[in-house]
Each structure stands twice: as C-alpha cells, then as structure tokens.
Write a structure and sequence with these properties.
With about 325 residues, this protein is α+β, with helices and mostly antiparallel strands. The chain is built from 5 helices and 14 strands. It folds into 2 domains: about 130 residues, FAD/NAD(P)-binding domain, CATH 3.50.50; about 130 residues, no CATH class. A hairpin with a 2-residue loop joins strand 6 and strand 7.
C-alpha cells in the first residue's frame, strides 16, 4: 500500500531503542497517523534519512543509530569542474569525436568519457575520475552568446576559458571525480523549522586538497599522454590543490549512514541494518562507504534488490 501526501516525522522505538515500534506521519492538512510493521526500511535519500534519524531522539538524545556520532557524517558528492582546454594538433580530430558527444544507441543516450587506468590511479594514489570533452569553436570570445545552449549557466564559464585564446578550436573539459570519505563533511540539524514544525537540515559539504589533487594531476597526465600521441596539448588551468569557487556537485548525495561491520565506524552493517536496532534497515546511497565517480543509480538499485532478497528470507525464517 502506498500512502501519498504523508510525511514521516519520527521513528518510534521501545524503551531501549533496540526495536522500532512504529513511524509517526503527519500531513500538511493536519492529519496524523502511525505506521506499524514488523520491519522498517528508510529509503528517502542521503539527506532526509539522517535528518529523520537525528530528529527521532525521544529515547536516544543523539538520534537513532547515532551512538558513535556517525549519522550525517561522511557526506559525499561527485565534484564536477569545468577546467582546461584541449587544443588539438589538427582539424581532423573534430571529425572523429562522435563517441564523446551525447548520442543514442538503441534509443539510449550515451556519451564516451576518458578515465585513468587502475594502475595509474594506484601508482599516483588518485581517486576515481573521468572527464568528458566538449568541442568548442572560438573565433572570437565576443561571439559566444549561444555557445552553451542546452547547458544552463555554462556560457560564462566557457567564456572564461577562451578569453585570451582567440581564434583557437578546442575542447572544453568537464571533470567528474570521486570525493574521499571525510567525517567533517556532514548533514546536521539546523534551528530552522519547516511547515510541519520539523527541524531543517544544514549541509556542510567539505572538499579537501586531496580531492582536488586528483583533478589537477589527472589533467597533467592527460596532457602528457595527448602530447606523446601527437594529438595536441592541454591548456591546464589548475595550478594548485585549492578548491575552485565554481566547482559543483552532481546532485548525487551519498555516505551519510555509511556501511561498516564495526558500529564504531558505520551506521549500518553489511545487510543494511542499523547497528543496534533489530528491525530497522536503510536502502539507498546514504549507505555507500565510498562513492567512485559514476552516477550512483545502478548501485542504488543493486543494493535495494539485495536488501529485498535479504528481507524476504528474514520474513520467511520468522514466519512473516
């Protein structure tokens, strides 16, 4: 059964917080009700799940599953950064880059990207990484009002790259990288409340020099390989590992109830069960201990299917 227009506001437990007894829900029209079940799964994403656990503090003042102050910590995103221009050695490259443009195969949109080999990642001690390339014809920076159609907000960024590089054909680079787990990058409760009287979240997304080193060093490696192959050169813009102001995320929120077998290092165990609570499970990217660079949906679905299989066996074994 699906109940629409209802908002979970509290996970209720027994007196020892070792078992969930129900979930309190409220509606914007004033309606209230409780959900009772044998098993409970939170599957509302890596922002809302920690908020709900932290606000469910009737028994555990720090929030459910938060006995080691881990709920909401290790917030991860996929840093996206436009940086660098690839200047090809000849015009022929513009006629042979179809793989790297958005195109369809059997009605599925795909786009090729460049990555570093696993051996390079290990030897250089870099995080997972990929870069997409975007052809740009730059006869004059003043002519670029429509250069970024279909990419909202990118015109000024592209202009920033090509100013002073007049009459050069090139490829703009969009870097996508993994973020290293960082306990100081976190979701917390703010003092502001929403229309239901619930505390809103406060996000402290923290990138480090280690995260930025991957993007900077990857550009250097790509430049070296392009020149060795005689394909051209890369105008590298990053000179240090500071976090650029124009860096963005991919709207991929992950890591805030991370998985670990040790309760002192994670919120859920290997079966996605919240440590210390017998019948509370979490599905979604909040359980990711690391995040790679790729879109998380495939892993989210795989973990959800895996959890479903586990819960089915769990219910059968207990006669449910």
């Amino acid at each position: 059964m699906t109940i629409l227009h209802a908002n979970a506001v509290e996970v209720e437990t027994n007196d020892t917080a070792q078992k969930v007894s129900g979930v309190k829900a409220v509606c914007l029209n004033g309606g209230r009700f409780h959900v009772k079940a044998k098993l409970f799964v939170l599957a509302t994403g890596a922002i809302e799940i920690p908020r709900l656990l932290l606000t469910s503090n009737r028994v555990c003042k720090a929030g459910l599953g938060n006995q080691h102050d881990l709920v909401g910590r290790f917030f991860m995103e996929h840093p996206h950064l436009w940086s660098g221009i690839f200047i090809p050695s000849g015009d022929r490259l513009f006629r042979s880059t179809g793989l790297y443009r958005v195109h369809t195969v059997k009605n599925v949109p795909i786009m090729g990207k460049l990555t570093l080999s696993e051996s390079v990642l290990r030897s250089e001690r870099l995080l997972n990484y990929a870069v997409s390339i975007h052809p740009r014809l730059c006869p004059d920076p003043a002519d670029h009002a429509g250069a970024s159609q279909g990419m909202p907000g990118m015109t000024e960024k592209i202009l920033r790259h090509v100013k002073g590089v007049r009459k050069i054909e090139g490829f703009a680079l969009n870097h996508m990288s993994e973020q290293a787990p960082n306990p100081d990058s976190r979701i917390m409760l703010s003092n502001e409340t929403d229309a239901l009287g619930q505390r809103r979240i406060k996000l402290d997304w923290r990138l480090t020099a280690s995260d930025m080193r991957t993007i900077r060093r990857a550009q250097q490696i790509i430049d070296e390989e392009l020149q060795l192959a005689g394909l051209g050169r890369l105008h590298v813009e990053m000179r240090d590992d500071s976090v650029p102001q124009h860096i963005t995320g991919g709207w991929h929120h992950m890591g805030t109830t991370r998985m670990h077998s040790d309760p002192a290092k994670g919120v859920v165990d290997g079966q996605c069960r919240v440590h210390g609570i017998a019948n509370l499970f979490i599905a979604g990217p909040s359980v990711f201990p690391t995040c790679g660079y790729a879109n998380p949906v495939l892993t989210i679905v795989a973990l959800a299917a895996r959890l479903g299989d586990h819960l089915k066996k769990y219910m059968v074994s207990f006669g449910g």
